[in-house]
Design goal:
The chain is mainly alpha-helical and 132 residues long. It has a 3-stranded mixed β-sheet with strand order 1-2-3. The protein is globular and about 50 Å long.
Length: 132
């Protein structure tokens, strides 16, 4: 009796270049929901801990830095992230409390990270990450 081993096909397991970004956004959504669930349900005062934790949000912002493609491909990835933010109800809810942005690495290098390189995923013109 002979057995034949099939050669694995890598193409079946490799996601498209755009797929991982929305998945990362959904992963961040899940983490955000887990981190904020206890705070929303509890009416008790926060547990004792470092004082600075009371002044900073758990999720201050979520930023995507894109590279590895032509300008058109990277602009399309930003558009895909904006579309997901607009169309996915849970992501849209998170976007109301957590600033979401994306930038192309070349723009960050040219304008510095504090320049108008960041595109808000909720829509609007490019701006510094501090103004998302």
């Amino acid at each position: 009796m002979t057995t034949t081993q099939a050669t694995p096909t890598l193409a079946a397991h490799v996601p498209s270049p755009v797929e991982p970004l929305p998945n990362q956004l959904l992963t961040a959504l899940g983490q955000h929901r887990m981190a904020t669930a206890g705070r929303q349900r509890s009416r008790q005062p926060a547990l004792a801990g470092p004082a600075w934790l009371r002044w900073y949000p758990v999720f201050p912002r979520i930023l995507f830095i894109l590279t590895g493609g032509s300008r058109q491909v990277l602009d399309n990835r930003i558009s895909d992230l904006q579309a997901m933010t607009a169309r996915h109800p849970l992501v849209a809810t998170m976007a109301r409390t957590v600033p979401l942005g994306a930038a192309v690495l070349d723009d960050l290098e040219a304008q510095r990270p504090t320049g108008d390189a960041w595109v808000p995923l909720g829509g609007g013109e490019s701006r510094p990450w501090t103004e998302l």
